[in-house]
Design goal:
- This protein has 486 residues and is α+β, with helices and mostly antiparallel strands.
- The chain has three domains: 211 residues, no CATH class; 134 residues, no CATH class; 128 residues, no CATH class.
- The chain is built from 16 helices and seven strands.
- Strand 1 and strand 2 form a beta hairpin.
- It starts with 6 loop residues before the first helix and ends in a 12-residue tail after the last helix.
- The C terminus is likely disordered.
Length: 486
């Protein structure tokens, strides 16, 4: 496919593409890398805390028992009490308010509290870079907007991008190799990359858009805006009674027998405004769930219209599943993770191309090598929180990443720095999987944990192979080039 653009227009588009890529390269890389892993976050949660009771079915009395045990353990009345039910992805049940949370067994008896460890750190790093909440979401969404600009300007800057979709020149010029890798992965993953950019940008900017829309159409009332978009809460005024979640679940099966319940929540507990909601997936619908509402006694009040209501409402409630691939079979999540890794390689190779074009090498090349290969090492070593609970995941990640960049700056040899960090990460992944097998009781390690540990070993072998290749290249002066490679 060839675009009717003049050489000057192509050059200017290429310049714009490079400038935008340089500014956002480092942060974009971190977001892409963590996003690829976050597609499998549910599996990492189970791997990180393998001793929790797992089951796929739970009866109504167990849900009621979980609520009863929560009442017995906690003083005071929470604004909302959640009972998260077992699903195919996470076959575990837990009960939580705004401050406390416990897993339960299949009978609803409270067990250990969930651990906010490495997986939580990974999700927060992807969602807001661990910046203050509102600011972090805006920064990440702005990067999503920039990714859209990169995609569009990249297509315009390469008139032959689709014609050359299967051209891949490996083993020759490093610049051509990186350019082909960048362009081929960009073309093959173009629909996915654009979808990720658009949905990611929306999530972060929704707060800003809500303020603007509320000011324009609802006299600044954001609650009224969200009620109009997602549906308003029921307004009740009845004598306080003890909520009956078991009856609500029975009524749900009568109203929507095909529904797959995700969670039950009791709002305004023990007050005159008390009501219950059950979120449930609906077969054949992309929206995250439908919300079914009940009064405290379990009488059905209606649903929120998230899967069969206005088209815009259904679309907005589908974005999360689209962004993270949480629809379809487990293979969808694996595909999202692999496509996310491809986008990560695109982000790295784009900066590599810019570095190679500058001619010569400086501290930017050194720092970039430390960042690109220090980040996987930092994620690997911070994941030891799964076997050493006292290890702070975020502090470990930041310290290792800073050390990797610092050492690369001191070494002043990007290719050797990349090779050494790859070797360390590969060895770290092997050690992590071995420690996980040794530390956790074999009776508690299920097939999924074995699968995760096996994937860690496969990743380790891949990194060690990359390290071996880079060590070989570093030993040949004619192959030495500034910048790290993905």
């Amino acid at each position: 496919m060839k675009f009717p653009l003049s050489p000057d227009q192509v050059r200017r588009s290429l310049d714009a593409h490079s400038a935008i890529g340089l500014v956002v390269g480092a942060l974009m890389y971190l977001i892409c890398l963590t996003g690829a892993l976050a597609a499998l976050a549910e599996s990492f949660e189970r791997w990180e805390q393998p001793g929790v009771s797992e089951f796929h079915q739970v009866d109504d009395t167990a849900i009621a028992n979980a609520v009863t045990q929560y009442r017995a353990r906690v003083d005071g009345k929470p604004e909302s009490l959640w009972v998260v039910l077992p699903t195919r992805e996470i076959p575990r049940m837990h009960v939580a308010d705004d401050e406390q949370e416990w897993f339960t067994d299949a009978q609803g008896n409270l067990q250990a509290a969930p651990v906010e460890g490495w997986t939580h750190m990974l999700r927060e790093l992807h969602a807001r870079l661990h910046l203050p909440a509102a600011f972090g979401f805006i920064v990440v969404s702005a990067l999503g907007v920039m990714l859209i600009a990169l995609i569009l300007s990249g297509v315009l800057a390469h008139p032959r991008i689709f014609r050359d979709a299967f051209t891949l020149r490996l083993g020759g010029s490093r610049r051509l190799e990186q350019a082909d890798l960048h362009n081929r992965l960009s073309v093959w993953g173009l629909p996915f990359h654009l979808m990720i950019a658009v949905t990611g940008a929306f999530y972060g900017l929704v707060g800003v858009l809500a303020v603007a829309a509320a000011a324009a159409f609802f006299d600044g009332d954001r609650d009224a805006l969200f009620d109009a978009v997602y549906g308003a809460d029921p307004v009740l005024d009845a004598a306080p009674v003890t909520a009956d979640p078991a009856r609500a679940m029975r009524e749900l099966r009568r109203q929507a027998p095909q529904a797959e319940p995700l969670y039950l929540v009791i709002h305004h507990m023990d007050s005159r405004q008390q009501f219950m909601e059950v979120a449930a997936r609906m077969p054949g619908r992309l929206a995250w769930s439908e919300i079914f509402r009940f009064d405290a006694g379990g009488t059905y009040l209606g649903n929120q219209g998230l899967t069969a209501g206005p088209t815009g409402r259904q679309f907005l409630y589908s974005l999360y599943r689209i962004h993270f691939g949480t629809f379809g079979p487990y293979a969808t999540r694996i595909a999202w993770a692999l496509l996310g890794l491809a986008l990560t390689v695109v982000s790295v190779s784009g900066v590599n191309i810019w570095l190679s074009r500058r001619g010569g090498r400086d501290r930017v090349d050194d720092a970039w090598a430390g960042l690109v290969w220090g980040a996987p090492l930092a994620l690997c070593l911070s994941a030891f929180a799964a076997v050493l609970p006292a290890l702070p995941a975020l502090t470990t990640f930041c310290a290792v990443l800073a050390a990797a960049v610092g050492l690369a700056l001191l070494r002043r040899d990007p290719l050797r720095s990349a090779a050494e960090l790859q070797s360390l990460c590969g060895l770290g992944l092997l050690l992590l999987s071995a420690c996980h097998w040794l530390v956790h009781d074999s009776a508690h390690i299920d097939a999924l944990s074995h699968l995760v540990n096996g994937a860690l070993c496969l990743g380790a072998l891949t990194l060690l192979a990359l390290a071996r290749n880079n060590h070989r290249r570093a030993a040949q002066p004619q192959l030495r080039r500034a910048g790290a490679t993905a």
